[in-house]
Every structure is written in structure tokens, then in C-alpha cells.
Amino acid sequence: MNTTIIIIVFIATVAVSFYFDYRFRKKREACVNALLNDLMSGNFEAFDQKMADKDTAKLIPPFNIDYMKLTEAIFQDNEANADQIFDSFSSKRLNSKQKASVYGNAIGYFISKNDVERIRICTENISDIKEDTPMYRYMSLIKEIFVEKKDSSLNTLLDEYQNKEGYDRYLDEFLIARIYDNMNDSAKAEEFRSKADEDMTQFLKDSQKSAK
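Given the sequence above, the corresponding C-alpha cells read:
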């Protein structure tokens, strides 16, 4: 076999591998989109059927499958399944992005359930990433307020929240309300819960307008 033929064979082999890789990526993309559509539309029966399909396991990495199952459990408000799937992540080796996805998104659900232990797990895993962003600041505040039940951030939050708007203002008001709950000041807690609800409603309206 001369050099020219060897080069032609090599190029043909590479081209075939790229073709199959492209086809695989397109199939994976289509599979993920179909699953996400089922989740967002609340078609959980179709979602479960697709998840049970052997092709899904071949196309989607195990982490993504578990993450989507956790999302389904949260959407369904299936507390037992959400707890079980969430707890299973503790035995898995996750990179920083995966930790941010799991623990950053699940914490809101466990806050709504007042599940202090799982809130603690979320905040500790997020703080392990050690990135200086607003998200990580809020994680430390959530741990301080919900887990440790401290009120040392109250004055800072009261000084800052009026200069914020949208989702950031809602978050501060939400945290302030919880601090007042911890202090057994129900009147102040209700005042800031109402503020938080109003700002979240406005934020959602503004988001819908900008999406049009």
C-alpha cells in the first residue's frame, strides 16, 4: 500500500468518525430536548417512559439523568423521591459545575420545605466551590440564617435591599423576613414577606414582557 492510499484511508476513517460523532450529538440533543419539553409541560408519564428507554441511558450521561429525575421530583412536589435522589448525590464525585447545578437549584425546594439539614448540605457543597459571585454570597447567608439562625446580617440587608431591584431585592427581603421569624417578630416577618411577594410578582411580569 503506497503513501497516497494510506493517506486516503486515514482521511476516510476520520471523516466517518466525525460523521458518527455528529449523528450521536444530534441524537443526544434531540433526546434532551424531548425530555425537557415533557418536564416543562408537566407530561411526567411521557418523561418516565423516555427515561426507561435503553437508548436514553446510552445517549445521556448518568449525572444528567439523575439531575433530571431530581427536577421531576421537585416539579411534582414528590418529597420522598426528591429526598432520595438528592441524597444519592452525596456518594457521587461531582465537579464544580455539577455541584452548582444540584445544590444551587435544589436549595430553593428545601427552603420551601424548611428542611434545615438538606439546606445545610446545599450551602456547604456550594461553599466548597469557593467562587466570589452573588450566588455564593447568598449561599453563605442562607446557611447563616436558616441553619445557624443568626441575625448578624440583618442591619446590612436592611441597608442594602432598598438600593436593589428585581430578583436581587426579592432575595434580600426574603432573607430579612426569615431573620425576623428567627427573632419571633411575626409582624416584621410578615411585612417583609409581603414585600418579597410583591417584588417577585413584579419581577415575573417584567420577565414575561422582556421575553415577548
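Residues 3-41 form the longest helix (39 residues). Try to locate this feature in the C-alpha cell string yourself.
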